[in-house]
């Protein structure tokens, strides 16, 4: 089993290295390392993405689509996701679910002719190769949805507050600011808590009604 301290990327690199040397992890009698191109290196990186059992020698349709998306081969105009899927089905063996590296290059050549129509087939293929060489799968960030804690909800529910804490918020739960922390002296002359404060002045200021 893989030690917990081993980083996933390091493990992936070890798998690619083992595949290149023709040995498995911890194998004996390693063959002479075969130098691979930058394009093939990227092919292998994407081929093993998300699959711990993959060797990097062939690529499934999902990772093929991801490679075309992450490397900018899909532009939404000349090449769409549908084009990518069609080419994958065209180049793979009839009963296979994956494509080999040679089939991968064949698929790229098909897309290159659609993407770079003003270039020769060879030049177009080289343009697409350059878009992929040295690239690795893009790992999108995982957004974790915050889960409300019953304890936190209880502590932040202003309707449950008592004493001086209760006076700091109005009925809607909105803070009163300074008025909720400092005792404000009422100099209006009315008894504290009187609900009809100011109503007398309004009655006096009204013009007398004419008798019917």
UniProtKB/TrEMBL annotation:
<dbReference type="GO" id="GO:0005737">
    <property type="term" value="C:cytoplasm"/>
</dbReference>
<feature type="compositionally biased region" description="Basic and acidic residues">
    <location>
        <begin position="1"/>
        <end position="13"/>
    </location>
</feature>
<protein>
    <submittedName>
        <fullName>Tubulin polymerization-promoting protein-like</fullName>
    </submittedName>
</protein>
<dbReference type="GO" id="GO:0046785">
    <property type="term" value="P:microtubule polymerization"/>
</dbReference>
<dbReference type="Pfam" id="PF05517">
    <property type="entry name" value="p25-alpha"/>
</dbReference>
<dbReference type="InterPro" id="IPR011992">
    <property type="entry name" value="EF-hand-dom_pair"/>
</dbReference>
<dbReference type="GO" id="GO:0001578">
    <property type="term" value="P:microtubule bundle formation"/>
</dbReference>
<dbReference type="GO" id="GO:0005874">
    <property type="term" value="C:microtubule"/>
</dbReference>
<comment type="similarity">
    <text>Belongs to the TPPP family.</text>
</comment>
<dbReference type="InterPro" id="IPR008907">
    <property type="entry name" value="TPP/p25"/>
</dbReference>
<feature type="region of interest" description="Disordered">
    <location>
        <begin position="1"/>
        <end position="31"/>
    </location>
</feature>
<keyword id="KW-0963">Cytoplasm</keyword>
<dbReference type="GO" id="GO:0032273">
    <property type="term" value="P:positive regulation of protein polymerization"/>
</dbReference>
<dbReference type="GO" id="GO:0015631">
    <property type="term" value="F:tubulin binding"/>
</dbReference>
């Amino acid at each position: 089993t893989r030690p917990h301290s081993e980083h996933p990327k390091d493990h992936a690199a070890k798998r690619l290295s083992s595949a290149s040397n023709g040995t498995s992890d911890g194998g004996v009698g390693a063959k002479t390392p075969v130098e691979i191109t930058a394009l093939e290196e990227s092919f292998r990186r994407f081929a093993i993405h998300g699959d711990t059992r993959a060797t990097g020698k062939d690529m499934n349709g999902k990772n093929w689509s991801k490679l075309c998306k992450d490397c900018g081969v899909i532009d939404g105009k000349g090449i769409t996701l549908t084009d990518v899927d069609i080419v994958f089905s065209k180049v793979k063996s009839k009963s296979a679910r994956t494509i080999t590296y040679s089939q991968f290059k064949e698929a790229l050549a098909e897309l290159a002719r659609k993407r770079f129509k003003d270039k020769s087939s060879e030049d177009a293929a080289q343009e697409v190769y350059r878009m992929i060489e040295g690239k690795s799968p893009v790992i999108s960030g995982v957004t974790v949805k915050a889960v409300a804690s019953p304890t936190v909800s209880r502590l932040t529910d202003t309707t449950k507050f008592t004493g001086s804490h209760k006076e700091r918020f109005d009925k809607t739960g909105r803070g009163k600011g300074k008025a909720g922390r400092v005792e404000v002296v009422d100099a209006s002359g009315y008894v504290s808590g009187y609900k009809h404060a100011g109503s007398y002045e309004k009655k006096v200021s009204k013009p007398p009604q004419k008798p019917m």
